[in-house]
């Protein structure tokens, strides 16, 4: 008897509550799916933000290194050429030793060298005490060629680099 009185008094609220419970039960999967998609979108936004920050940092670093390389070239650097031909400039590789072509002696630590693509480096002793290419910075390649023109009789060529093919 008490139940019928509650029903008469609150039947609209009970029916509305029942409809809400049923609709909630049927839409739980949809809500979970939306929540998962929202999580994926958040993750993508976060990754994109990190990518933009990394690119901006790389650009700032590149500009700073370019200024260093250009200063080295203005002060003077020794252009490195291929072992097979003194006419071909080579690209600098970190950790490689550099020898004088005539005496076959290692160049001294502290010497500034420059490569075919406008990169410069300072020779530093490795753990074995051999001066090797270190602290590479890439600058303006045209500045390198201006310096080469100042060397009387210098005839060097730039060979376009090739990407190694995968076997």
Descriptive notes:
This protein has 167 residues and is of the alpha+beta class. It has helices at residues 2-75, 141-150, and strands at residues 78-79, 112-114, 119-125, 131-138. The protein has a four-stranded mixed beta sheet with strand order 1-2-3-4. A hairpin with a 4-residue loop joins β2 and β3. The radius of gyration is 34 Å and the shape is rod-shaped.
Q: What are the salient characteristics of this protein?
A:
alpha+beta; 2 helices; 50% helix; 167 residues
Short description:
50% of the residues lie in helices and 12% in strands. It is α+β, with helices and mostly antiparallel strands. A four-stranded mixed beta sheet has the order 1-2-3-4.
Give the secondary structure arrangement, pairings included:
Layout lengths: L1 H74 L2 E2 L32 E3 L4 E7 L5 E8 L2 H10 L17
């Amino acid at each position: 008897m008490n139940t019928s009185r509650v029903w008469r008094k609150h039947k609209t609220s009970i029916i509305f509550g029942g409809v809400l419970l049923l609709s909630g039960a049927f839409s739980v999967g949809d809500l979970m799916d939306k929540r998962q998609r929202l999580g994926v979108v958040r993750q993508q936004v976060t990754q994109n933000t990190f990518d933009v920050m990394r690119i901006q940092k790389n650009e700032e670093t590149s500009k700073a290194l370019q200024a260093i390389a250009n200063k080295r070239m203005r002060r003077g650097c020794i252009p490195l050429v291929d072992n097979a031909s003194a006419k071909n400039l080579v690209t600098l590789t970190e950790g490689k030793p550099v020898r004088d072509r005539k005496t076959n002696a290692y160049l001294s630590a502290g010497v500034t060298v420059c490569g075919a693509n406008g990169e410069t480096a300072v020779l530093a002793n490795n753990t074995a005490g051999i001066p090797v290419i270190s602290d590479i910075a890439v600058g303006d390649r045209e500045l390198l060629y201006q310096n080469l023109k100042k060397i009387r009789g210098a005839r060097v060529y730039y060979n376009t680099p090739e990407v190694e093919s995968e076997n």
